[in-house]
Automatic annotation (TrEMBL):
It comes from Candidatus Roizmanbacteria bacterium GW2011_GWB1_40_7. GO terms for cellular component: plasma membrane; proton-transporting ATP synthase complex. Belongs to the ATPase gamma chain family. It holds the Pfam family ATP-synt. F-type ATPases have 2 components, CF(1) - the catalytic core - and CF(0) - the membrane proton channel. CF(1) has five subunits: alpha(3), beta(3), gamma(1), delta(1), epsilon(1). CF(0) has three main subunits: a, b and c. This is ATP synthase gamma chain. It comes from the Bacteria.
Length: 287
C-alpha cells in the first residue's frame, strides 16, 4: 500500500504542476500578443526614420560625421546584449549565448552592456568586461542611458564598433539569435529601383539648415530607435519561448499523469487479486 500511496502522491504533484504550467502558458501567450503588437506598431516608424537617415547621409561625405565613420581601430568591440531576467523559456538564452561565443571568438577585446540578468551572469562567467547592467526595472526605460553610454564611448575613441545581440522574433514558434551592427552607422547605397524612387521623392524637399546639421540631431535618435526595436523584439521572443516551453511542460505533465495512473491501476488490481487469492486460500484451508 505504501507504493500505491507514493504513486497517488506523484499523480497529485503532476496535476498541480500541470495547472501551474497551463496558467503560465496562458499568461505568456497574452504577453506575447501584446509585445508583438507593440513591436509591429513601431516598425513603420523605424523604417521611415531609417529611410530619412539613408537619404540625408547620402548627401554628405560619411567620413565627415563621427557616427558614420569607423571608430578607433585600437578600441574595443562594444556589445549590447539583450537577454531575459527570468528562466523557464526553454533554450532561448542558451542558444543566444552559444552564438555570442561563436560571433566573438575572434574579437581581440570585447566590452558588454547587458539588459537582462541572464546575460549579466553569462558575461561575468565568461570573463568579459561588463561596462554596465540595466536589468532592474523596465528594460525599455533604459534605452536613453544605454545609447548615451556607448555613443559617448564611440565618440571618445574607446570603441571601434558597437553591436546589438538579441533574439529576433520570427514567429510564435521560432526566435532567431541575431547580431546587428549599430556603430558606425551603415548608409544604404542608392542604386536599386526602389532607392532611386525614394531619392526622387526626397529631392522635392528643401533641407534646412543643412543635411549635416539635421543628421547631428537625427542620428542619436535613430540609434535609440534601433535599441528600442531590439528590446521589443527580444521581449516578444521571450514570451513566445516561455509560452511554448510551458505548453511542452503541460503536455509532459499530462503524459506523466497518464503513465502514473496506468501504473496505479495495475498495482491496485494486483493487490486486489492477491487479497482475493488469500481469501480463497484461507477458505479452502478451513474446510
Amino acid at each position: 500500500m505504501a507504493t500505491i500511496r507514493a504513486i497517488k502522491g506523484r499523480i497529485k504533484s503532476a496535476k498541480n504542476i500541470s495547472q501551474i504550467t497551463k496558467a503560465m502558458q496562458m499568461v505568456s501567450a497574452a504577453k506575447m500578443r501584446k509585445a508583438q503588437e507593440v513591436a509591429r506598431q513601431g516598425k513603420p516608424y523605424r523604417e521611415k526614420i531609417q529611410e530619412a537617415v539613408g537619404e540625408l547621409a547620402s548627401r554628405i561625405d560619411p567620413t565627415l560625421h563621427p557616427l558614420l565613420r569607423m571608430g578607433n581601430p585600437d578600441g574595443k568591440t562594444m556589445v549590447v546584449l539583450i537577454s531575459t531576467n527570468k528562466g523557464l523559456c526553454g533554450g532561448l538564452n542558451t542558444s543566444l549565448f552559444r552564438n555570442v561565443l561563436k560571433w566573438l571568438s575572434h574579437a581581440d577585446s570585447a566590452e558588454f552592456i547587458t539588459l537582462g540578468k541572464k546575460g549579466q551572469r553569462f558575461v561575468i562567467r565568461s570573463g568579459w568586461d561588463l561596462s554596465a547592467d540595466f536589468s532592474e526595472g523596465q528594460i525599455i526605460q533604459s534605452v536613453a542611458p544605454v545609447t548615451q553610454l556607448f555613443v559617448e564611448g564611440f565618440l571618445n575613441g574607446a570603441y571601434k564598433e558597437v553591436y546589438i545581440i538579441y533574439n529576433r522574433f520570427v514567429s510564435s514558434l521560432k526566435q532567431e539569435p541575431i547580431m546587428v551592427p549599430v556603430l558606425p552607422l551603415a548608409v544604404p547605397e542608392l542604386g536599386s529601383q526602389e532607392s532611386e524612387k525614394q531619392h526622387i521623392e526626397w529631392s522635392e524637399f528643401i533641407i534646412e539648415p543643412s543635411a549635416r546639421e539635421v543628421l547631428n540631431q537625427l542620428l542619436p535618435h535613430y540609434v535609440e530607435t534601433l535599441i528600442r526595436s531590439a528590446i521589443l523584439e527580444a521581449e516578444a521572443s521571450e514570451h513566445s519561448a516561455r509560452m511554448v516551453a510551458m505548453k511542452n511542460a503541460t503536455d509532459n505533465a499530462k503524459s506523466l499523469i497518464g503513465d502514473l495512473t496506468l501504473a496505479y491501476n495495475r498495482l491496485r488490481q494486483e493487490n486486489i487479486t492477491t487479497e482475493i487469492a488469500d481469501i480463497v486460500t484461507a477458505r479452502e484451508s478451513m474446510r
